[in-house]
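EI: anyone free to look at a 124-residue chain?
SC: sure, send it
EI:
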Amino acid sequence: MLKKLTFSSRITFVLKSLLFSYLLTAGLLLLLSLLLYRFSLSERIVSISITGIYIVVTFLAGFLAGKREGSRKFLWGLMMGCLYFLILALVSLIVNHGMSSLSTSFLTVLVLCAGSGMLGGMLS
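SC: here you go
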C-alpha cells in the first residue's frame, strides 16, 4: 500500500505536522501553567511534566508521519522528532541570546524527542 506522494506534498505535511505539534505543546504548557498556579506544583514536577509533554507531542508527530507515509515509518518518526527538537533549540537560542544558558539536559531532550518520534513512527 505504497502511496505516490510528491515532494511538495511531503514538505507541506511535515510543516503542518510541526505546526500541529507546537500548537499542542502550547496548549499543554498553558494547562500546566494553570495547574502550577492553582496547586503550587514543585519545580521537579513541572520539569518532569515539560519533558513528558515533549515526549507525548513528538510521539504523536511520529505516529502521524508514519501513518501517512506507509514505508520507512521509523525514519519519518525520527525526522519529526529531530525537526521538533531543532526548532525548539533554535527558539531557545534566540530567546536566550546565545549558547551560554543552554541547560545540561540539552542532549537528553534531543534523545527523548528523537526516540519518541521514532517510536511513534514504528507503532503507526
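EI: The radius of gyration is 16 Å.
SC: 👍
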